[in-house]
Design goal:
- The complex is a heterodimer.
- By secondary structure, chain A is of the alpha/beta class.
- Chain A has 2 domains: about 1-85 and about 170-260, Rossmann fold (3-Layer(aba) Sandwich); about 105-170, no CATH class.
- Chain A has 8 helices and 10 strands.
- In chain A, strands 6-7-8-3-9-10 form a 6-stranded mixed sheet, sandwiched between helices.
- In chain A, a hairpin with a 2-residue loop joins strand 9 and strand 10 (about 230-235).
- In chain A, helix 3 packs across helix 4, helix 3 packs parallel to helix 5 and helix 5 (about 155-165) runs parallel beside helix 6.
- Chain A is globular and about 55 Å long.
- Chain A starts with 9 loop residues before the first strand and ends in an 8-residue tail after the last helix.
- By secondary structure, chain B is an alpha/beta fold.
- Chain B has helices spanning about 1-10, 20-35, 50-85, 90-95, 100-140, 155-180, 185-190, 205-225, 235-265, 265-270, 275-325, 345, 375, 380-385, 400-410, 430-440, 505-525, 530-535, 545-585, 590-595, 600-640, 650-680; strands at about 330-335, 355-365, 400, 425-430, 445-450, 450-455, 460-465, 475-480, 490-500, 540-545.
- In chain B, strands 1, 2, 3, 4, 5, 6, 7, 8, 9 and 10 form a 10-stranded mixed sheet that branches.
- Chain B is elongated.
- The model of chain B has no long low-confidence stretch (mean pLDDT about 80).
- Classes of the chains: A alpha/beta, B alpha/beta.
- At the A-B interface, helix 2, helix 3 and helix 4 of A face helix 10, helix 11, helix 20 and helix 21 of B.
Amino acid sequence: MLTDGGNLMKILKVEQIEKYYGNKSNYTKAIDNISFEVEKGEFVGIMGASGSGKTTLLNCISTIDKVTSGHIYINDKDITKIKGNNLNKFRREQLGFIFQDFNLLDTLTAYENIALALTIQQKRSQEIEQLVKVVAKNLDILDVLHKYPYEMSGGQKQRVASARAIITSPSLILADEPTGALDSKSSRMLLESFENLNKSLNATILMVTHDAFTASYSKRILFIKDGKIFSELIRGDMNRKEFFDKIIDVVTLLGGDLSDVV
Amino acid sequence: MLFKLSLKNVRKSFKDYAIYFMTLILGVAIFYVFNSIDSQQAYLSISKDQRAILQLMIDMLSGVSIFISIILGFLIIYANRFLIKRRKKEFGIYMTLGMGKGKISRILLFETILIGILSLFVGLTVGVFLSQGMSVLVAQLFEVDMTSFTFNISNAAIIKTIIYFGIMYLLVMFFNTFNISKQKLIDLISAGKKNEKLKIKNPLFTTIVFLISIAMLGYAYYNVTRNIQILEAKTLYTCIGLGIVGTYLFFWSLSGFLLKVVSLRKKLYLKDLNMFVLRQINSKINTAVMSMSVICIMLFLTICISSAAFSLNNSLKKNIKELTPVDINIIQSYYETGERTSVLESLKQFKVDETILKNYIEITTYASENITMEYMFREIMAELLEKYPSIRLAGNESMILLSDYNKLAEYYGHETIALNDNQYLIVANYEQMIEYRNLALEKNTTIEIEEHILYPKYKEIKNGFVSMAANPTNIGLIVIPDYLEPYLKPKINFLAGNYSCEDKTICDAKIKELNEDIWNQVNSDSLNETESFNKEYYFTFNTKIEIYEAGTGLGAMVTFIGLYLGIIFLISSAAILALKELSESSDSKERYEVLRKIGTNEKMIHKALFRQIAVFFLLPLCLALVHSVFGIMVARNILETLGKQDLILPIIMTSIFIIVIYGGYFLITYFSSKRIISER
């Protein structure tokens, strides 16, 4: 766990949240009493099979979905209490999103896609120009800035999407299966840039995945099964290979459906 | 089973079909309204002559209806094709479930029938109610009272509407079947995913094309107005052609050009969602160039036709009122040797009933061998010919003695005039001739009659006339001092009078009888027509009532046909645009979803959507307005022969009518689009 001058900086605090689907007589518990915390500068992975509730969890944290009970605090603000346009404001200022299918606007160039995240915050144009260049350099996409999404490779698109997510300096970056649509080489490049963002910019990343290789880039992994936290794995001083083996062990232990997706 | 599916589909997609329904209903309603006018005439107290004009108008309207139905047919097929395109995925699912193309076609067939029946029913109901308002308009345009207000329904018009629209729907069915049979399953299933390939144009090239289009339009505008008086058909056609091509190129290059210009202004470009909106427009315009050009030209036609129609009707009515100050004019003209006599005396041989006239005055106009048009324009002939090569000015001028003119002016309620012994002046009211004559007067052109030299009193024409008419047609009458009478030849004896009857139509009928009597007698004199024209008892009767009836009839006819065409053009263009925008909105749904995901607030998204749709609705309208400024100038020049056109009111009327229909479509499109992009 990271400390900052002796004080624990909790970016995200999830407290006993539950999410039910269906009605009273017939319901499914998608999330069943989950609690955990994420500190500033952490790179946390959440693993689970499809149907385990990991996407629901991410949706609740990202304010796209609402919890049935419990509280979620981001920077000590209870997001389950925010409503309407303030929710949009909160999302645009505090959170950065990276999606499996990139979600870039096909009509805009890479530059414009990244800048959009700032224009909707009504930032000044000079500031925007500067920031885009800095972030693009960080993610090594300076040479694709003038290109349209259809002219880019999957990896480049995902890095552009990542640039869009971090340019607003969000408190928390949420990545939903970021390597889901990438080949292994692009995946590796992307994950390395995540590591780099985490290290050099001290960015806090919460990444949902079902892929052990992808998860092995994070510092800590929460395993979710049937809506509950099944186990937790901390990388500590292990190198990536050792961490990967550890993950495989847990996945085997989890058994069933997750093992076949490794 | 299939029928049930169709029924459900129609009910389910009712909201998506809103624009389609609205267009069909409006189309049916308007078609009915304009074709049901003949059933209303029975309830109007109109004269025989007016009835004939109304009949002519009805005939013309049904001719125009064929043209209208072709336009509506194309519109319906176009709208339908759009809806089919939207539903490709649905058909794909039917087909993967094992439904044959034949069955899918049958589903569509049922749907078309359902929609057809529904739209006909609603449209006709709306039409029946609208047509009640129409009969009030008919009465007003013909300036007659409605004998009684009866709620009437025209069966003939209903049947005609059903037949015409039935044929259109049949064509739609045929088209749908053909369309479906062409489809491949793979294309249908992946229809939703297929993204239109983005074609990015070279900015430099678009800028050049943009400048070329501006130059083309400018050249066309210039040419069409430069020599507006003598605009030749060939020039006009060239300008129309240039205008159409220029319009197309303008839209083709505009978005690229705009994008280039705005993106250079970072402050504006990087503000809110401006960047997104511009890019949206730019990506859409590739597919929208053709329809935008068509819409622009249709709007242009709507504006010109409606303004011209309204203006013509207004000016006709206004003219008539001013140009018919008394009940009757009787003109006795001489072609060989004439003398100054009383018209009424001459008429006595036809047993005229003098008591018909409450009061009257008699005057005479004169001519002289030497005073011709060429003579009056001698100072400026060369100049005129150079400016207007096709001008023809020939023939003897008409003259009137000052005392005669003043007598008439007083009777008509016009201003009387005074002349010195060496002065003359000219009264006229025909626009074109006023212009020419003013040029001659400015040169101080003199008139010499037997060594008496007359100078113009004023450097310009005095507005006025002697003979009543529906339009200002007095090309010029020279008023001279009385002492010159001995040197002139009488040409026309003229009577102006007012009826003594309480009900003027009774006197008018008597005059008509008299006129017929004279003709019968002339003909029974076994003279051939040319000879009878030379006889001294050649009379013309101009009555106020007659002029009114002819004039208002013409005005009403023009207004109706103009309105009919204008409304249909407007509906067509608005509907095409609305459908296009709606389909674009659902294609862009995912983009808005992305905006939402990265935290854009709804207000900003709605603003962006509004701007986008507004741009697509406003662009063709703005260019059409610019076109119209020049178009109306040309139309005005053509219509000038019918009198001076008052354009302010017609333009306001047209604007209101465009704002209501076009704005209505715009709002429906905006709200439907908002609904589409909010669906999750």
